[in-house]
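Appendix B. One record, verbatim.
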Amino acid sequence: MFASLFKRAEQSVDSAIGDLGNRIIITIPFLVAMGFGAASLTLYLDRLYGSELGTLLVAIAFCLLGLIIAIVVRVRRNLSASNSNAKDDAAPPEENLTSRPQSMFDDETVMAVMSSAAPIVIPAMIRTGLKNWPVLLAAAAGLYVASRSNHQSAATPNASPPPPSS
């Protein structure tokens, strides 16, 4: 009796994980395309308005995009909450008072994926990092050197001694 119940629960979890995986796989090319689009837009605006203003305009555009997405998500959440409240009018009022806003990690599907993937992914990341520690160290050093400002080296005067006077 319980075997069939567990089997159905396992199939529904597998279906949810598969659906989430498919969504992630579909989303990745769009994220990469958005990155290239942002880089292209940045280069164009840098050429048009200068590097400081062009980069600032791209940052403002992404802030506006994030704000629009946040508003859409909030409206959808409010609509789904109002629909579920209309369906659950028979629920006791104390359950509605104790409910708290859910975060992304409260979703059972995300937690199922994270809890099933973490024991596989974390050891693999550690093994890969330990095998490639010189590459990681070189990448960190490269990022450090690249992050140093060229303005600092241009601002310091040349420390060469003055020419000898005859």
